[in-house]
Amino acid sequence: MKVIQIVGRSNAGKTTFIKSLIPALSAHGSVGVVKHLGHHGFTLEPGKDTTIYYESHAAISSGVDEEKSVLVRRENDLDSTLESFCNAGVEYAILEGFKTRLFPRVVIGDLESENVVLRNPSVDEVLAALPEFEDYYTIEGLVRELRRECGVSHAGAILTFNGLVREWTGTERTEYLEFDETVDALTESIRRDMEAVPGIIGARFYHRKGRLYAGEDITYIAILAEHREEAFAAASSAIDRLKQELHDVEK
């Protein structure tokens, strides 16, 4: 999922720009939008059942009619929302605001900012610059990408793997591991090797970068295969190679 952040001062025209960007992006894939409401909050309609359920401490309260569904979630952090978007198969997530989160961003107006990709651009300029915006991954998102791009007409299995930073290996403790952009070339090579295994229809492999602490996710693998045996073999080989060529060296 590509994350496109739009920031600017109040009344700079962010909403107007996003309104034009949504249909343009929708021509390339599904779009989700998250607005930072700040201190304004969002008022739930008093007396409605979904409001009553939320006020009764339901983790999620939902209503479904003939045209749409509405979800009210107790989580109020951006990451959980992005995870929900990615898991739902959203391909482009537009963020309005969230200035303190330094995603690669578009600035509308004269706001001073870091990590700026474009300032006061046209919609076409944003589309042309999509590779410069950050990708966001979840395992379910990778699975949906495989289904969407490879198809499942010949598939008999989808195998996923989520690697963690192990804190304890025997009596040896690992506080954190750290990876930079050089990991991308290795993971792409491993992904190609997985897809070269007979019976593998498609594979996706994401390795997180930066400083990763014990207990955090480190790798996501999703494999679409004709049979489960082929998926297990491809995954096992990929994990062994990653461990030998990167993780053991990193430690």
Q: Which range does the strand content fall in?
A: 25-35%
Distance between the termini: 30 Å
Count of individual beta strands:
15
Question: How would a textbook summarize the main sheet?
Answer: 6 strands, mixed
The number of helical elements comes to 7
**Content-based structural category:** alpha/beta
What general outline do the C-alpha atoms trace?
globular
Q: Please, what is the average pLDDT?
A: 93
Residue windows where pLDDT falls under 50 for at least 5 positions = none
Q: What order do the SSEs take from the amino end to the carboxyl end, as H and E?
A: EHEHEEHEEEHEHEEEEHEEEH
CA gyration radius, whole angstroms? 21 Å
The percent range for helix content is 25-40%
How would you describe the overall organization of this protein?
The structure is a single chain. Strands 1, 2, 5, 6, 7 and 8 form a six-stranded mixed sheet that branches. A three-stranded antiparallel sheet has the order 9-15-13, sandwiched between helices. The protein contains seven helices and 15 strands. Strand 10 and strand 11 form a beta hairpin. The protein has helices at residues 14-26, 49-55, 78-87, 123-128, 139-150, 183-196, 228-250, and strands at 2-8, 31-35, 60-64, 69-73, 92-96, 105-108, 116-119, 134-135, 157-164, 168-169, 172-173, 176-179, 200-207, 210-213, 217-225. Helix 6 runs antiparallel to helix 7 (228-250). It is α/β, with parallel strands linked by helices.
